[in-house]
Structure formats: structure tokens, C-alpha cells
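Quick one:
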Amino acid sequence: MGLELSGNARTERKKVSVADFSKMKTHGQRIVMVTSYDYPTSTIADDVGVDSILVGDSYGMVVLGYDTTIPVTVEELLPICRAVRRGASHSLLVGDMPFLSFQISEEDAIRNAGRFIKEGRMEAVKIEGGREMAHIARAVSNAGIPVLGHIGLTPQTSTLHGGYRVQGKNADSSESLVKDAKSLEDAGVFGIVLEMITEEVARVITQTVSVPTIGIGSGRYCDGQVLVLHDVLGLYPRFVPKFAKQYADLASTIKKAVAEYASDVRQGTFPEEKHVFKMDDAERDKLDLRQKS
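Output:
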């Protein structure tokens, strides 16, 4: 299912669909998902063959500088979705429905989910919440819009559960999470994101439901993994989650580059000869004559 690279040559790969997620779970093929919030990074992610790109409401924190995801609106996310869509032609594209874009009513949820598909050009939406949101997931799914569920730590309602805490640390909460997953499966979701759930419980959920699980901070036994691309690249030093592996430290690299640029400008060493544009000799001679006259 992934992209195959041979030297500098790129072989064509099949467009990933919602149905492919189920096939990948059946065949034991791990699903790779990342977030992206712009055209350049979605192009890179799509080129290397990630299976899915999520336009997360984490955009509000990572790019806009909000303290939480709560202030993010549909209007803010739709242009970002379109930018990602222009950069990605193979990965399955999922739009993250922000706070209060689906909780008010089934009709409201369908309307806003439809905006992600029609205006944002996404191919599916993600909805946070377990049993309490299963009826919403069912309504959106029945309207013909694929839904990715999300349980465990749900940032939009984290204040109700004591903040950003690991879920599934005791028997009662573990049983509740399994019920949440089953209710979403029954509602027709094509997959479930498991965020910050103990590895043991995530493993039970993955073995219990027929739809694939995508882990973020939920251990090694999920059917796939998702990380914020800025965490992968080391571009969000404000907060580095324990579960995120940094594969680069681009924040330091960028800081060094900007500092060198500032120094060159102040010292007059930039721009150099190779960075400037010149007139043709004949035109320069005319200019010189005019200046002399």
C-alpha cells in the first residue's frame, strides 16, 4: 500500500481509501498517520508514502499559539484542509472536527462534517468522544461521511477528566474505554484513535474491535500510529510529549539559520554578488551617461 522509492524514481502508488484501513488491519499492516497543516509538509508526507494525513485541531496550538484546541473553529480549519489537499494526492485525508462543531445536534454535526468534505476537500472527519458521541458518529456516518473515532484523552473535553492525563489506569476506566470503543464500532466508524491510553488497555481494545486502532501515546499494540508532524520534526519545542519521538531538531536548525542571516545582514555580507541582478552592459552605459549629464 505504501509508496515505493527507487533511487530518485517514484513509482505510482494506489490512493488510500477508508476501505483500505480495514484491509490493513486484517493483513497486519501497520497504518502510518501524521498531522499536517500546510501544502509543503503534506506534499512531503504524501511523497514518502504515509497512509493518512490528519488536519488536526491541534493546529490551534501548534501554529496559532492557542493554549488549548478549544478556540479553533471550522472557518480556521477549512483553508488549512484545502492547502493539505493540494499537496496530498495519495494519503487518506481526515479533517478534525473542532469543539462545538458536532456536539450540539446531529443536524449540526452533519452540516459541519459536510463542510469538511465539500469545502475542505477532506475524505473523512474525526470526532472526539465515546459512548456519549456514538449517536453523532452514527448520524454523520449514515449521511455518507466516513468517521474516525477518538477516545482516551480527548483534548476538547480534557478539563472534565482532570486535564491531560493517561487513561485506563484502573479496571473501571479500562472497562469504560472498551465500551466506548465498541459503541463507536457499532456506530459505523472506520477506525478509532486511542490517545494516551495505557498499553494494556489499548491492546485489549485493538483485539476487541474489528476496526483499526490508531495510537498516539497508547503503546505498541495498536494497528497504527499518529504523531503531530511538528513533534516528529522537532518544530514545537514549547512542549514535547513523552510519547512523541523526535526524528529531527529543526527548531534548532532554523534558529541557527535565522541567526546567521541576521548577522550577515548587519555585517553587510549579504547579499553577495551571486544574489543580485545586473543590467545589460548597454543599458548600464546609458544609465552612466544620464548620470554624468
